[in-house]
Write the structure tokens for this entry.
Amino acid sequence: LITTTDIAPTLPTPSNTHATPHILLDHPHTTTHLQKLPTTNLTPTEQPTPPDTRHPAYLIYTSGSTGTPKGVTIPQTNLIHLFTATHHYFTHHTPNPTPQVWCQFHSYAFDFSVWEILGPLLHGHTLIIPNHHTTRSPHDLITLIHQEHITTLCQTPTALYHLINTHQQNHHQPLPLQRIILGGEPLDPTRLTTFHQHHPHTTIINMYGITETTIHTTHHPLNPNTTHTPNTPSPIGQPLPHLTTHLLDTNLQPTPPGTPGELYITGPTLARGYHHNPTLTATHFIANPYGPPGTRLYRTGDLAHHHPTTHQLHYHHRTDTQIQLHGYRIEPAEIENTLTTHPHITHAAATLHHDHHNNKHLIAY
């Protein structure tokens, strides 16, 4: 078991006499030992049977309107399709490429982290794993970006807004970032104008993703020269090459360009379904009337429209009461129901509030 000295004492003691061996990464003896080990790649060994990529890669839980977390099963083959489709985000197109350094900003309980971790490692890049405090402190994160020469950073839009404000107030040296990848909540591009001006060589990509369709679904590289209007639907671009999106009305008929419709997704990276929940699976993973027999559509519950001219997708909001805050999908009804379990509370309301800086806060009454 690989752990650290502060966590080891909290681990349960095995009931048998064969305790699991511990390697304490932050122990001086361990550090000395690791420095003596070889750093060359391991020699591949022949496997008796090839691994079956249909087997699950992971089971990750998301919230739902019932308040009961639902497990989403993602097969290994889904990740193969995803990383094939996003290969260009991890490769170089210059004659003398510099090494990429990625940062795992998100918790491993959030599937965005799967892309952050496996993407750079599969392509031979460096991955920096900051501690929890650094990911919550824009000042410390800026320091880490400079110290480690981080070239690619994944953020929620809210986290990036705080990073930009902190950088403008306290730092003068431009960030060495080559690419910022956003996701998890709607984006207001008007809040990035100043950053574009001070970082003309940093590309910002807004990605829309769903756990049930394996992390990322659409991508939209932002054009710094495009003028955006505040409080307009978030631009989420085009589907990744392995996926197809449909905007449908309540009768599963396509909506015209410019008219909002519910976003449905089809392709090889749809999850198997919800773990041990066939009823919920049948509700959200439906037969695809626009594809070959046997294919499925995933019903996202998100409203979007196609821009009549650019044909880019723009995200509006949920079709239900679910809200998005700092990358988390939240059901206000769950909060309200929990509050009313208190003996002195009979009614409650939870809502998303925007302050005068357009920062979002969840407030319950």
Notes: The first strand starts at residue 2 and ends at 3. DSSP finds nine helices and 20 strands in the chain. The radius of gyration is 23 Å.
